[in-house]
Amino acid sequence: MTPEQLLSHLDAGTLWPAPAGVDLAAAYQQALAVRVLREQRGERPAGFKIGFTNRGIWDRYGVWAPIWGTVWDTTLSFCDGIGRLSLAGTCQPRLEPEAVFGLRAAPPAGASLQQLFDAIAWVAPGFEIVQSHCPDWKFAAADTVADGGLHARLLVGRRVPVRDIARDAAELERRLAAATVSLHREGRLLESGRGANVLDGPLHALQHFAAELQSSPGAPTLRAGDVVTTGTWTDAWPVAPGESWRADFSAPLEPLVLQFEPAPAA
Predict the structure, then answer these.
(1) d(CA 87, CA 130)
(2) Which helix (H) or strand (E) holds 94?
(3) How far apart, in whole angstroms, are the C-alpha atoms of residue 57 and residue 66?
(4) pLDDT at 259
(5) Which of 9, 16, 119, 199 could cysteine-pair with 205, CB 3.0–4.6 Å?
(6) What's phi and psi for 82, nearest 5 deg?
């Protein structure tokens, strides 16, 4: 498919007629071409999502390495712990509880964990709404990249300055890797997870992504102000309009509640 066709399916929330049919390198070039089209119509990149950092779900989805995609000003929302989102225009949406970083500076090339820590302003709990335009979520890794990294929405909860919770990178990563989450739908526990599930910790996931971004031809660089969500601590769970979800993160993150808007009346 052309970038214009990919964007058309993204806007309409419709399934692809066939897989992307390209390799991973070509898929990133398609995704970057779609990024240009979105910028040309007025959307602004707000950061990035890192996908498939949770090794525990690789076999389930047939993807065995992380991917990345763009987060947009049109897909990003903030709240103080209770948020509301619409699923309108999404395709087979699912929900993922994650740790989200906000950058205060651009990290240097080949950044160490400490250099990344120095570049981070805050950390927060997040819900990423992911989607797939491939029927039944059956895809190859290249399909997920061409499909915008499967990104649909990102809700960011209460932001905590990282220097309020850690003195250095080692302490921040230790605390985030040890943190846990319990995911609930309509008050019912569905699954539990932990920060170490994402490449041994969210800061390691960020380091892996920064290196991948720098090695991708034509990719943008990380900038001050970017938001980066680092991957799900549980499986991705199907969601529907009207549902209420809660992620009970342990310290240093705080709980996050999300209410989906009801479906429009027929």
Answers:
(1) 10
(2) strand 94-103
(3) 11
(4) 98
(5) 199
(6) -130, 120
